[in-house]
Write the structure tokens for this entry.
Amino acid sequence: MYLKEWAEELLEENNFPGKLSEKDFVFWISQGYMFCLFKLDEGDEPPVYYYCEGKRLTNFVKIADSLSSFLYRFYSLDKELFKAMNG
């Protein structure tokens, strides 16, 4: 219920240049330092974007081409899903 609010606080704390819009839906947050979102206006299978504290990002990073592919990879414990962000 508060995921988007917590994500906004994280972005503010880290001086992230972008803001979440009304069309951004934060659906996953982990330990208060990283989260995933999709845009409500990008269709039935929207891409998934990622933010992680400490990565010096200036924009959200697309980590999956669709929500279903993100969910499949996430729940099958695909170690490559977040690799671009951790390496």
Observations:
- Strands lie at 24-30, 34-39, 48-52, 61-64.
- The two ends are 31 Å apart (CA to CA).
